[in-house]
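Shipment paperwork, digital attachment
Item: protein structure file
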Amino acid sequence: MTDPFASATQMLEALRIREISAVELLEQHLKRVNTYDGLLNAVVVRDFDRARQQALLADNQAAGQREGVPLLGLPMTLKESINVQGLPTCCGMEAARGFVSEHDGRNAARLKTAGAIIFGKTNVPVELADWQADNPVYGTSNNPYDFARTPGGSSGGSAAALAAGLTPLELGSDIGGSIRVPATFCGVFGHRPSETALAKSGQFPFPPAPSPFAIFGVQGPMARHPSDLRLAMGVLGGADIGEDRAWRLALPEARQSDLGAFRVAALPLPDWVAIDTDMAAAYHGLLDALRQREVHVTEIQPQGLEDWRGHFSLYCRLLGAMLGARQPADVRQARIARLASVGDSVWQDLRTGMQASLADAFAWGAERERHRASWRRFFEDFDVLLAPSFPRPAYEHVPGLFSALATPDAPPVRIGGRTLPYVEQLFFPSVPILTGQPATAFPVGRNEAGLPLGLQAIGPYLEDLTPIAFCEALQAAGLSRFEPPAGFPAADDDR
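Attachment content:
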């Protein structure tokens, strides 16, 4: 029996040397889902019968040739929003409850081609628009470290399933922290890829075709071990449908591998941004630990990026434009009207984006490119930039919120002794998103309540392997590692 908290890489090695069969490994994971998911409600779409058939085929293929199928026999799950042929996809929306995809999204197809066995999909908030995983179709997902708290969102079911040992590898998506926030809340690793490194199409309700106007939103891997993120990027990296006729992705090797060789920058925390005491302590604690190991760490404001308020405002305006474009005109106009009376500057930036003209969008795009140039100059001198991934650890469920980033229904939050609108928690997730930088979320221990704490390593554009390698080096140095939650033992009981 394989350790359910082993890495995907270790499970694949066990398959390769015939220590376990694909059928046995799948059944081990299906048993854990049946045993423990009643506590979590994470794996909400199940495809066990087809998975069993695929596992048999994988074992037959393994008896022959494994070349070109690096994930052969590995069971895994995907975020519910990602289309898989023959499975429902509704993004938690009651109106889309009966939708069944007729095709595989490009990244789902790449995983299948690589030999992965997709046995289910994991829970999300309505419209993927909250840091919870709660919707009227599938209900609420719980955090495996504290069932009274959210596992994060929008890839919340993904992170919960990973942390509980229900799946070894996941594919999420991220437009407002939706990979990195759940990874932080559940103590796992999550990689937001460079904006063009992976296909972005293939999520409900869009057809399997790319859109040149779809910025910010990316799909990316989540895992318990950073080496599995590198494995997944090797499978998933590549052009979207149509462009793959000629385009190929050749990610540069990581700039460094030894922790001491990394040139580490640390973001000075803006005084106007609220952050929880435990999260701030974890951030500064890691910086101190790195310095004690003689790692070169510089707290620095990247030149050209000193105005983080302006950077954040531009992100929110462009995000508003993206969210508005997804909505029917009547829904969009109703939300614009509703936001007119909301005084918070973040909501007003989102509202401005929702009603933007084409000229506005082009002007904001030009401003975005100036920021991208600043990041390029910055990463000539540094390999990674460290920052918090979210201002606080996992918080208690906010029932019935469903879609907080689409409507201003969420109650204010109390963070670091300050009261602020729920949506202002977007700042730390937004830092790499505006310019499409790759960013890897990683765990850095737990607070006194036993809740995971996490940070993010932001890297140079299209050098995704560098922040992932930094996380691998942190793990090797004992500064970052996944810690299984209590109540989910490695040895299954007979419940």
